[in-house]
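Weekly structure sync, notes
Attendees: PL, DS, HV (note-taker this week)

Item 1: histidine kinase
DS walked through the input record. Source organism listed as Paenibacillus brasilensis. Sequence as pasted into the shared doc:
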Amino acid sequence: MIKKYLMERMSWILLVVCQQLLILLIAYVDAAIPLMPILYIVFLSTMVFLIFLIIRFPKETKFYRTLEEWESPLELTGMGEPESPFEQIVEQKISKQTERLQQIISQNQLTLEHEKDELLSWIHEVKTPLTAMHLMIERLEDKSLKAQLTYEWLRIHLLLDQQLHQKRISFIENDLYVEQVDLKSLVYKEIKTLQSWCIQKGIGFDIQLEQMEVLSDAKWLAFIIRQLLTNAIKYSDASDVILHSYEQNERIRLEVQDFGRGIDPKDIPRIFDKGFTSTTQHSDHTSTGMGLYLTKKAAKPLLIHIDVHSKPDAGTTFTLIFPKRNDFISMMSM
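Item 1 (cont.): predicted structure, written out as tokens:
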């Protein structure tokens, strides 16, 4: 403790000593100044300074002695040295702050889970009157009114469906059931759902399915194809959408090709980013930037690779490249 006390005040001690030596040097060099009186004064001032240091020692080291009393048995740090009292106090504060932040995070997670469950429940409840509405629309005899109402109903249905899958996609791994999926029936079902929209825009389909079955999850694959078809219809006018399945390099591929406005080459690397719409059609308020983002998110756990080729004003081709059977076996065995 004495050593620490002296080391902390070493600069002041050296200053006083240097002053005393300077006074003695001046008295020794200058013959007009008597040396013995100066030596006596230096001796007295040095003694006063030493007494001052001794008196201040217990008062100025009181804080350190208090810390030593608080200090728990010394623990070795990672470097093999005991922690200082200051380090222990800081560590305790950090530990308390970390514990508090963990509690806040846990509470926020519970709140988010509760809100997500409520939203999913609400979507399911809304689907019931929406289904009843669709049945009532089907009974209408006025074909023009029926077509308009069916189109608006479809828009609401697609928005709810996208919102439902957006909330489910965070735990998609728990919802997967991989099986042989009949590609033909799945594609025709999705086209039938979008039929009213296609009729309104004068869009037809050219279906060329050389491969009828793929290994995937039927529900999530239907969602992926639905998003690609929705994009193709949304950005096309009075043209055909081609769906072509074939096998290449031992992998089944499904192409969805449209002849719409296409995608600018500089936008292609960003089309799967959340919220991205377009740089050339930035004022298009119908785009949400979520469709392709969710498509990519859903394709990843299904081991489906999505390839994109597009030219502005010439159309876009999305290719779903399905995995081999061995890829799923390897994934499940991990």
